[in-house]
Design brief:
The chain is about 20% helix and about 25% strand. The protein contains seven helices and 16 strands. The mean pLDDT is about 95. The structure holds fe (ii) ion (2 copies).
């Protein structure tokens, strides 16, 4: 029997179609296996208006999944929880911690905004699910929890630290990804791929007995990647033979151009307002 249809709408992205709000952030609306899942929330300013313009009613949200704790994925939590009814939230416990990006000696706080942490704190404890290990949300939808770092050429992709002085590197262990199974193939959603895109995809494939990853959508965080990492990432992707690659958010222009060179029309650069049906 053919599995039910999957629809993914990009609600928030750095790029957008006319009439929608663009921001540095990511949020995707996933309709699959009878559930409506918000995967990340963007920074907050774009979520509600873009959802409304796209005919997505946030009050229908069954589950909120947070890919990791950066502000550009979690700032919309208060708005989502204000609009939605009984939503279950799934995230790694590491999403709530101070963290910084330090560039040219200047620390920028990039943690989950205080209001978002407070909104999570107000949730009844049975609706807040701290995830460390692979977890099935439904029969066909899973999330990874912590993603093992197997490749030797992928790091977090940026100057991330747990302290403003830069003494303690932030390994972003809270980074997780989601997969949806359909007809023994997988559609994978990633937030920023801070665990490494190849680490993430290999782990999900291993968790699913080697099933083919047909589509990957989300931020690949390759904007600071050197040529060796880019080349090895693309060669690993080539081995996976995906049908569609949808780079969004923090993938980086250079990486998108290289992906297009390799995969041609299979690469569809993402933007808020795009709707994919599988
Ligand atoms: Fe991000
Ligand atoms: Fe991030």
């Amino acid at each position: 029997m053919k599995s039910r249809k999957i629809t993914i709408t990009i609600l928030v992205d750095n790029q957008t179609h006319e009439g929608l709000h663009a921001e540095h952030g990511l949020a995707m609306w996933i309709e699959a296996d009878g559930r409506r899942i918000l995967f990340d929330t963007g920074q907050g300013a774009a979520l509600a208006s873009n959802a409304q313009a796209l005919g997505v009613d946030l009050k229908d949200t069954d589950m909120l999944v947070l890919s990791h704790g950066h502000y550009d994925h979690t700032g919309g939590i208060p708005e989502l929880l204000r609009q939605s009814g009984k939503v279950d939230v799934y995230c790694h416990s590491g999403v709530v911690q101070p963290r910084y990006a330090i560039r040219e000696g200047r620390p920028k706080p990039i943690q989950m905004p205080t209001k978002a942490m407070a909104a999570l704190d107000r949730l009844p404890s049975q609706r807040l699910h701290w995830i460390r290990q692979p977890t099935w949300l439904t029969e066909d939808i899973g999330i990874t929890g912590f993603i093992p770092r197997g490749s030797n050429y992928e790091d977090t992709g940026g100057p991330f630290y747990l302290d403003p002085e830069g003494r303690y590197a932030d390994p972003i262990n809270d980074d997780l990804a989601l997969w949806i199974r359909q007809d023994d193939e997988l559609v994978v959603c990633v937030g920023c791929s801070h665990a490494g895109l190849v680490n993430t995809l290999n782990y999900i494939r291993d968790l699913n007995h080697g099933q083919r990853i047909r589509t990957v959508i989300g931020g690949f965080h390759l904007l600071d990647a050197g040529s060796e990492r880019l080349e090895r990432t693309i060669s690993a992707l080539t081995e996976l033979e995906p049908e569609t690659v949808i780079p969004c958010h923090c993938t980086g222009d250079n990486a998108v151009a290289m992906l297009r060179q390799t995969f041609g029309k299979a690469v569809l650069p993402g933007a808020a307002g795009m709707i994919f049906q599988f």
